[in-house]
Specification:
single chain, 4 helices, 55% helix, alpha+beta, five-stranded antiparallel beta sheet
Length: 107
């Protein structure tokens, strides 16, 4: 994990930040989005079959995290123009407005 103050617009960096900040505290906005994604995954037969085929619990956890973060990044890219990491927090930015997405206690 390497969290530094930066502003970015690309999905690849967003995916990296979602992974890193996944250990932190999600905002209410993200908690709601993750709950929606979880419901979608529960109805996705292809995902369910592949998940069930994995024997190792670590592989299952990794599959879930990757799928959740991909879907989350796609939605966030649609909602915001750019993203900012500042003071161990991740923000989505659109015009002059910024919304807290994740925060992490690095102490």
């Amino acid at each position: 994990m390497f969290i530094k103050n930066q502003t970015f617009k690309d999905e690849e960096t967003l995916l990296e930040m979602l992974f890193d900040f996944g250990l932190g505290q999600a905002s209410a906005l993200l908690q709601g989005m993750i709950a929606e994604i979880d419901k979608e995954l529960e109805r996705n037969t292809t995902y369910i079959a592949y998940y069930a085929s994995l024997q190792d619990s670590d592989d299952r956890a990794e599959l879930y995290t990757e799928e959740r973060d991909l879907r989350l990044a796609e939605r966030l890219m649609d909602m915001f123009d750019s993203f900012m990491v500042q003071n161990a927090s991740l923000y989505g930015m659109k015009m002059d407005e910024q919304k807290l997405l994740y925060t992490m206690d690095l102490h």
